[in-house]
Amino acid sequence: MGDWTQIKGRFFDSTTGAFDESAQARWFATATGRIGVTMTPQALLYAKGGAAWVNNRYQDIQTGAFCGFGSLGCNQVDATTTTTRLGWTVGIGAEYMFAPNWSVFVEYDYMNFGNPSVNFTFPSGNSNAFNISQHIQTILVGVNVRGNFGGAPVAARW
Prior knowledge:
This protein has a single domain (about 1-145), classed as Porin (Beta Barrel), CATH 2.40.160. By secondary structure, the protein is mainly beta. β6 and β7 form a beta hairpin. It has strands at about 1-10, 20-40, 45-60, 75-100, 100-110, 115-120, 125-130, 135-145.
């Protein structure tokens, strides 16, 4: 599964007090397997797990004590970096077949991408690294339609 997103977050550089960092998750993807149990012939409860990836764009924004020095001025982006991080995902869900070949589902997913170091390199050549923890939680609601290319009726089964 893959999704484009505009999830944004900000954090303050408490070391120097001069920079404000932003992070934007631009897309994430998962590769999962699921296992479940049928509660009735039409209802399925399941758990899933697997790998997850996220692509982030980080920006370092000059503020505070360094505002106005050099050519950057105040509240200017002075470093940008992009990374794709590997993590893991788990989730739970339920699916209900309400008509032949049609079902609805609801699913909760949790993704964890750890706490790796992200390096910012500034125009001056200096650099600064931050350990940035990232977790994404999603709730999916949807309708599935299953193709019946053989012409025979499809029984309620997964």
